[in-house]
Design goal:
By secondary structure, the chain is of the alpha/beta class. It is built from 12 helices and 10 strands.
Length: 307
């Protein structure tokens, strides 16, 4: 049934990876294999809400501490600075994710998205990215399904031109994925959504839905938004004390423990280092059960759609 559902939704064959010669080897520790064979590092360093100067210094710091996956976006308005920090490193040494905003006009979505894709590369100073995402569905979601088709067609064209090693989406719900599936020739490799303790391991059934389609769910806001509960709350700090780990490390470990890659954020060297320390230890089955069952803080996978 799962195979049949996948073929009904995305009837195309997933193409093999079209990777430039300089791509990193697929033996990086702690990666997830995408549906086209590309290896994506499980932990990425985010750049949202950073000024250009802070984005540059944070990416430079993160790369020096061992991060090999940077998460950027056209809408963050700091990509030139991200590119300056990346330019100090061999292109094969890191994985770069970026994004383009949604479009609502079917007649111009392909051309406008193509311009945005080119702007991403120009601002970052790169000839290709490792993962290109549609940042979110348009306001009204599937009311603009034709525009979503055209936007996805632009990403497929970008992918076939070997300017992205993989393409995907962000903040897409089941309805959004069903919309683009009706015209897609390439199955999205990733759906980046809000995912943290308090939402349950399969919020609105979206993670399992992606699993059936071969779409990797990636987490943003893994420590929640505007709350310290997943950093200093009693549940995560109590569990952390038993493992000599912080509450934040427990919260992040819960995400990757479910096989979900995670995008973290910090400008602090000590916090960045701690955020990488998610492997070689795990919570107990009883602790995992308590974390899975938590209903606070609340969250929703997408700010643009409900199901």
């Amino acid at each position: 049934a799962n195979h049949r559902e996948r073929m009904l939704l995305f009837s195309c064959a997933v193409p093999s990876a079209q990777a430039p010669a300089s791509v990193p080897p697929n033996d990086w520790a702690h990666t997830v294999k995408l549906n086209n064979g590309v290896a994506m590092p499980l932990i990425s360093l985010g750049t949202w809400q950073y000024s250009p100067a802070v984005a540059e210094s944070t990416v430079r710091l993160g790369l020096s501490l061992g991060y090999n996956h940077i998460d950027a976006a056209l809408d963050y308005k700091n990509q030139r600075s991200v590119g300056k920090a990346l330019a100090e490193h061999d292109r094969a040494s890191y994985f770069l994710t970026t994004k383009v905003p949604s479009r609502t006009s079917a007649s111009s979505a392909f051309a406008d998205t193509s311009k945005d894709l080119a702007a991403d590369l120009e601002q970052l100073g790169l000839s290709y990215v490792d993962l290109m995402l549609v940042h979110f569905p348009p306001v009204g979601n599937t009311l603009h399904c034709a525009a979503m088709h055209e936007q996805w067609r632009a990403l497929e064209t970008f992918y076939r031109a070997k300017k992205a090693r993989a393409i995907g989406v962000s903040n897409y719900c089941q309805s959004s994925l069903r919309c683009i599936a009706r015209a897609a020739n390439v199955t999205p490799a990733v759906n980046q959504i809000k995912y943290h303790i308090g939402m349950g391991p399969d919020p609105i059934g979206l993670r399992s839905y992606g699993d059936r389609l071969g779409i990797v769910t990636q987490a943003y806001s893994p420590l929640g938004d505007g709350t310290g509960e997943l950093i200093s709350g009693a549940l995560v700090t109590g569990i952390g004390a038993k493992h000599n780990k912080s509450g934040a490390q427990v919260s992040l470990r819960w995400v990757v423990g479910h096989g979900v890659p995670v995008s973290t954020k910090s400008t602090s060297a000590s916090h960045l280092t701690a955020n990488l320390d998610l492997f070689g230890w795990e919570v107990s089955a009883q602790e995992k059960e308590a974390l899975d069952a938590a209903t606070s803080p609340k969250g929703h996978p997408s700010f643009m759609c409900d199901a």
